[in-house]
Amino acid sequence: MASLFCLFIWSLIVNAIPLSSAFGAGLSSVQNATLSVVHIKSEAGGIVNTGNQGFIDPQTGRAVILSNLAAVKYERNGVGVIISSLGFIVTNLHTVKDASRITVTFHDNQKKEAALVYEASGKDIAILRFKPDIFIPAIEFGNSDHLAVGEELFTIGGSSLTDGAISSGKVIGLSWENAATKEGVPFVNMIRLHFKLNPYQGDSGSPLLNQRGEFVGFIAAAQAGTHNPVYALPANVIKKQYLKFLNSRQTTTKA
Predict the structure, then answer these.
(1) What is the domain range of residue 187?
(2) Would 190 be classed as within a structural domain?
(3) pLDDT tens, 5-60?
(4) Distance from CA of residue 151 to its chain's centroid?
(5) Which of 7, 43, 44, 71 could serve as a FRET partner for 143 with CA atoms 20 to 30 Å apart?
(6) Signal peptide location in the record (predicted)?
(7) Beta pairing partners, 44
(8) Would residue 220 count as lying in a domain?
(9) Contact, 194 vs 238, CB < 8 A?
């Protein structure tokens, strides 16, 4: 079984095509979807032991072990998709898990703080919420069950090298299950695509769009190296988790 790596380590760069290039009839629809795509930066930190020191206490004669502790800070970058104009964003959980601070950047470079409000760890799905000041368009869900092998899909990059670039790839498999993430979470009903990979960070969570610009999934993981398959979570699975989240909020409110 090939080892897979989450795409905050391996990011997607796929035949990047400038927005001015022609995709045919679907170009304007795919371009419009960029308004609903955000860049995500999550920050986290903690205390680590950098080593131990031992000495004999002269008063007690006992051995004393002291740990050298140091504060560490790290950040992860990824992509999110606005799925509700009320301020809900969906992305990969591995990008934002355990974050102490999450910042989202919109298409116009406006930045806002966001909070993690729902997570489905077994599916690597997270829902964030921000407070919108103005109307921000939400992406339109497509039916991922209608995808076909050989179908061309598009994605919108979020790393420093693919930021805003529309890229294309083809579906090479559906309902893919014989794989596992780096954390050992099994892939079930994943979309398998053929893309090129390069070792750059920041494209995890990039949306998959059909010719109509509808959201049919997001990139979740890939095999290490170039010319290897990319795995995406279908939009129907994501939507099911979103509806589950909304239902839980309504139940809590009624209670």
Answers:
(1) 4-41+75-242
(2) yes
(3) 444 333 333 344 444 343 454 567 888 888 999 999 999 876 656 677 777 778 78
(4) 22
(5) 7
(6) 1-16
(7) 74
(8) yes
(9) no
pLDDT of residue 186: 53
The pLDDT of residue 196 is above 50? yes
Count structural domains, the chain. 1
Dist CA 118 CA 125 (whole Å): 8
CATH of the domain at 113: 2.40.10.120
**Is the residue at 101 inside a domain?**
yes
Q: What is the DSSP string of the chain?
A: ---EEETTTSEE--S-B-TTS--GGGHHHHHHHGGGEEEEEEEEEEEEEEEEEEEE-TTT--EEEEEEEEEEEEEEEEEEEEEETTTEEEEEHHHHTT-SEEEEE-TTS-EEEEEEEEEEGGGTEEEEE---SS--PPPPBP-GGG--TT-EEEEE--STTTTT-EEEEEEEEEEE-S-B-TT-PBP-SEEEEE--EES-SS-TTPEEE-TT--EEEEEEEEESSTT-EEEEEEHHHHHHHHHHHHHHHHHHHH-
Amino acid in position 149: V
| Residue 25 placed within a domain | yes
For the stretch 81-109, pLDDT in tens is 999 999 999 999 989 999 999 999 998 88
